[in-house]
Amino acid sequence: MLAEDTTKITVVYTKYVMSHKHPITDSFAYAIDGIATAIKEEPNFRLHLLAATIVTTLAWYLKFSSLEWVILVLVISSVIVLELINTALEALVDLVSPSIKNQAKTAKDVCSASVLVASIAATVIGYLLFIPKLALVL
Predict the structure, then answer these.
(1) Positive or negative torsion for Cα 29, 35, 38, 43
(2) N or C: which end of the chain has fewer CB within 10 A?
(3) Which positions are catalytic?
(4) pLDDT digit string (tens) for 62-116?
(5) Radius of gyration over every alpha carbon of the chain, rounded to an integer in angstroms
């Protein structure tokens, strides 16, 4: 016969309960915390930010047109956003699958591949934007 489990579960509520009932300023604070975490913990994110800073400075120096700025901002932001999504997915996979599993590896690899594809596309677009302008300056 099975013994009856008499263990009591205590639920502790804190101010960090996941809900949508918080001021919009808190939403911005959470987003800034997410960016700060990515900067602190993800070397690739820091590398993408460095590259973005360099190309933005160079675009300013080369006096990009409005259309060139729109293209540049869209390309930079797509890489940054995908890097943030990749970071979030990796953390989530680590949480739900602490042991190595093929499906967890696939999820991480495919998400990382999206960042790689966006980075390659950004590099190609960067060459198309910068080479003609640099050819005139040099």
Answers:
(1) negative
(2) N
(3) 83
(4) 999 999 999 999 999 999 999 999 999 999 999 998 888 899 999 999 999 999 9
(5) 22
